[in-house]
Amino acid sequence: MHTFLLTGKSQMGKTTLLKRIIDTVGAERFGGFYTEEIRDASERMGFTCVLLGGGSLPLAHVGLNSPHRVGRYGVRAGWFNEEVRRSLTETVDSGKIVVADEIGRMQMSDPDFLPFIQGLLASPEQGIVLGSIMEERDAATDALKALPGVRVLPVTWENRDRLHEEIAVEIAALLQTGN
Asked: Which InterPro entries does this entry report, sorted A to Z (predicted)?
């Protein structure tokens, strides 16, 4: 199992970097989801969960009245629904590279998400996982970062323009060797 988890400050470009890796390696080799910002002019208003196989669903929004809150955002209850779970399961079953962007407080507000990700990352049979994970200290995400086969890659202003090429080359080599 090979897991690449990008980490870094908010708005450092982790999702952009992840999407560049997907484009470089070939989108047909990936499945799962990434999180995209919802913007109103220059202000971030929320987040959408975008499925690589097509479709999207709201994850969080400043105007969402929800008991699940992360900062100023209300998080949609049940976002990790049948559609998202099916996308990830089909990706695993097909042998594609699993994308999970982001493993963070919003996503973990759904009680089914963290156990699924823990099982995925702890599975020795799982092929390649590409994702991002919150930088802040947290018992659950710290445990994921410490799993065998997990590489945590800090994204910084200095490395973010070249890191996608390094990771894409490594993933391509793993695909050629069948690992």
From this structure: Nuc-triphosphatase_THEP1 (IPR004948), P-loop_NTPase (IPR027417)
**Which domains are delineated in the chain?**
2-35+80-177 (3.40.50.300)
Residues present in the chain in total: 179
Residue with tokens 């009245």: 65
Residue 47 predicted with pLDDT over 90: yes
72 or 77, greater pLDDT: 72
Global confidence as pTM: 0.93
Kindly write down the DSSP assignment for every residue of 48-114, as one continuous string.
EEEETTS-EEEEEETT---S-EETTEEEPTT-S-HHHHHHHHHHHHHTPEEEEEEESHHHHTSTTHH
Write out pLDDT tens, residues 114-148. Answer: 999 999 998 877 799 999 999 999 999 999 999 99
Kindly list the distances between the CA atom of residue 105 and the CA atoms of 4, 28, 73, 100, 140, in Å, as whole numbers in the listed order: 19, 29, 11, 13, 10
d(CA 151, CA 33): 19
Order the strands of the 69-70 sheet from edge to edge.
69-70, 73-75, 56-61, 43-51, 30-40, 97-103, 128-133, 2-7, 150-154
Q: Are 55 and 89 in contact (CB under 8 A)?
A: no
Indicate the SS3 state at residue 169. Answer: helix
CB contact at 8 A, 18 and 101: yes
